[in-house]
Structure formats: C-alpha cells, structure tokens
Amino acid sequence: MFDTMxxxxxxxxxxxxxLAFLLGGWAAETIYHSGGGGHGDEDQAYVIPVAxxxxxxxxxxxxxxxxxxxxADAAAGEGAFRPCAACHKLDGTDGVGPHLNGVVERPVGSxxxxxxxxxxxxxxxxxxxxxxxxxxxxxxxxxxxxxMNFNGVRRIEDRAxxxxxxxxxxx
Length: 171
Fold this sequence. Notes:
Blueprint: H1 4-32, H2 65-70, H3 74-80, H4 118-121, H5 129-137, H6 139-142, H7 156-169
Helix pairs in contact: 3-7, 5-7
C-alpha cells in the first residue's frame, strides 16, 4: 500500500505545516508586541466603556444638588417634562403612572387608587427635591424593582429644572 517514500512525504508535509504555523505565530508575536513589554506594561490606545464594569476612575463631584436646584429654571423644566408626559399627567388624573401635579413634598405612594410597587414605597417617606433628584437620575438603581421603565435623566441641571417645574405646577 504505502511505501517508505510515501510515508516519509506525508510525515514531512505534516511537520512542514506545523513548522510554518509556529514560525507564523512567532512572527506575529514579534510584530504586534514589539518592545517586549506585553499587555500589562503599556497604556491602551482606546478604552471601551462598559456599563456595569468596575472602573478605577475617580468621579469628579460637581456642586451639590441644593445649589443647582436654587438656580433651576422652571420654564426649562417644562421642556424636560415632555418625555414624562407619555406616562404621567399634570391635571390630577392618572395615566400609566400617577399624576405628578403636587408631587414635590408629597408623601411617596400617596395617590389614592394607584397601585404602587412595594419597592418604590420603601425608598423614602416624602418626595423631597433631593429624593426626586436621586430617583430621576436612575429610577431602577434608586428603587430596585420599580415598575417605572425609564432610564433616567442624566444631567443634574435637567433634573433640577424638571423638579422646579413640577414644584411650580402644584397640586
């Protein structure tokens, strides 16, 4: 069947292929990691942010919320309310969410006839501007398990303006 010459050629072909892969790997390692430092010794050129990833960065604290809220613009907050209007009303009737007129300084979970989630009622006694700020920044983080499906308002100025607008609407 096979003579020694055919067997020698087959084994030589396999060894040659293996040698080509080893040399290719060595060449690639030399080209892409020149300098010999490896991955941990050099800074990355680009860092991809990960939502739930732990970071070593120090978050710079801005001015306190009370200071920003003192200079908030209720007229600008009316514009910030537009996304909220999809689920909340300001006329005393409930939509998908409870009505928000008079929400500032109102006890949490106090709208009669609206079925609040237990996690929302457990986070605070009253909707102070500070509590509203924390909730509007990250609703699911502030009240885990809340039925409110909203990602939050990222800018502290927008949250302050929105809360000022809601305070001006009254109950």
